Amino acid sequence: MKRKYILWMIAACVLISTAVASCQREEAEPQPGPGMAMGAARITDSVYYAADHMMAYNYVYPSTDPYGEPVMLSGTITMGDGVGRQSAAPALVLYNHFTVYRADQCPTRGDLTVQKVLARSPMITVSADYYGFGVTEHEHQAYCISAVNAQASVDALLAARELLAAMGYRWEDRLFNVGYSQGGQTSMGVVRLVAERYPDLDITCTMAGAGSYDIPATYSRFLVDTVAGMPSTVISVLLSYNEYFGLGARRDEVFIEPVLSHIDEWVLSKRYTREQIDSLVGSLRVSDYVTPSMLDTSSALSQRFLGAMQTDNLCQGWSPRGDERIVLFHNTQDITVPVENTENMYRYLTAHGVSNVTLDVADYGSSAALPAHESGALYFIVHTRDLVCDILGIEPWSIM
Q1: What is each CA distance from 158 to 135, 150, 216, in whole angstroms?
Q2: Secondary structure of residue 331 in the 3-state scheme
Q3: CA-CA distance, 397 to 363, in Å (whole number)?
């Protein structure tokens, strides 16, 4: 009973965005609007979460949009009361958030559930909103396009280091790159981006869980099985790839009713959570919201999408650093992100000279109340914490 109680408490912590209570705002400035000019990174707002003993610094920083054009993005730096300017934090954590849809679920808008767990450690955490949230929430999010989200995260990290140093904070030269689900894909996107463009940036360890690393394989699996655990994610992947790869598909070529008539309201308005969108779709069967042409992998339409997805496939086309330390997690029962994503990622890394990669793939359990993807998230956060503590030589902190 005690173990079951703990799991449910963790689930509440990881999967439910709690209301912000007892917070004080300091150095408050208006959030930059859509027309904000490019400039240097700067703190825009700071919030102290008294109940969680955590400080959050919201900031904006220069990056690029999905087309490679300059843009200002937003992110958050968080730390617990144990982090001060007198001594160096033992590490930085680049935390890449999982799937969100409602505008107020991004880090700078206060959805900091996982960051509050990390704030119980002595580390400093950096989190990007990604393009399409925060100061760019008026734009279509680049959902599951790893190259775009990885660039947003790396730029957020580089800007955060400058801002932290300017505020007098110090840290040891250790960096943990962490994410689950969409965040897992982004974390491996960060590994690729760093290997290709940032030779001076060293990642101590990457811990990635249940990410869509092989997005074409994910798409093909859903078409074969015709069941996806989170319909909203399938819809959003098709929308974002059509938008940012210029595929030119009409919505009625891709979707059928009732989704077709409600895409703007349900998905693009950013007024609904993932759970609410899935409930509105009303079916896990892909054929209940996607056209027969999209379900036929031999059709010209389907081939267009698969071709675009291949260009962002993390299981091909790049050379990892040989000294990477990577741990991959996946629940074998997962029907939201098929397990072959992690298996393919592991095979690719080991075939390209990464010897220090660990595959933690197993049946983590599932139930009607806690499906396999969410159950995997609980396993991921507990074992990620334990691994970080082992590397740093510190006692595990409470995640309750």
Answers
A1: 18, 12, 31
A2: strand
A3: 25
| Cα gap 148→67, rounded to integer Å | 9
Distance CA 395, CA 386 (A): 9
CB 54 within 8 A of CB 115: yes
Whole-number Å distance between alpha carbons of 112 and 98: 11
Residue range 85-136, pLDDT digits in tens: 999 999 999 999 999 999 999 999 999 999 999 999 999 999 999 999 999 9
pLDDT 10s digits, 58-74: 999 999 999 999 999 99
For the chain, strand residue ranges (E) read 23-26, 42-49, 54-64, 70-80, 92-96, 124-128, 175-180, 205-209, 325-331, 356-362
- Measured CA to CA, the distance from residue 394 to residue 88 in angstroms comes to 15
Pull the structure tokens for residue 79.
Answer: 């730390």
Largest CA distance in the chain: 62
Distance in angstroms (rounded) separating the CA atoms of residues 331 and 173: 32
DSSP letters for 165-191: HHTT--B-S-EEEEEETHHHHHHHHHH
Q: Can you tell me the distance from the alpha carbon of 38 to that of 189, in angstroms, rounded to the nearest whole number?
A: 25
> Do 10 and 374 form a contact (C-beta atoms < 8 A)?
no
The CA-CA-CA angle for residues 116, 194, 384, to 5°, reads 35
Contact 60, 36 (CB under 8 A): yes
Q: Are 286 and 230 in contact (CB under 8 A)?
A: no
According to the model, what pLDDT value does residue 178 have?
98
**Amino acid identity for residue 179 in this structure:** G
Asked if residues 180 and 380 have their Cβ atoms less than 8 Å apart, the reply is yes
Reported pTM: 0.92
Helix (H, G, I), strand (E, B) or coil at 103: helix
Q: What backbone phi and psi angles, to 5 degrees, belong to 80?
A: -80, 175
Give the separation between CA 28 and CA 19, rounded to whole angstroms: 20
Strand 124-128 versus strand 175-180 pairing type: unpaired
Residue 270 — left, alpha, or beta (φ > 0 → left; ψ -120 to 50 → alpha)? left
State how far the Cα of 375 lies from the Cα of 14, in Å rounded to an integer: 10
Task: Tell me what percent of the residues of the chain surpass a pLDDT of 70.
Answer: 90
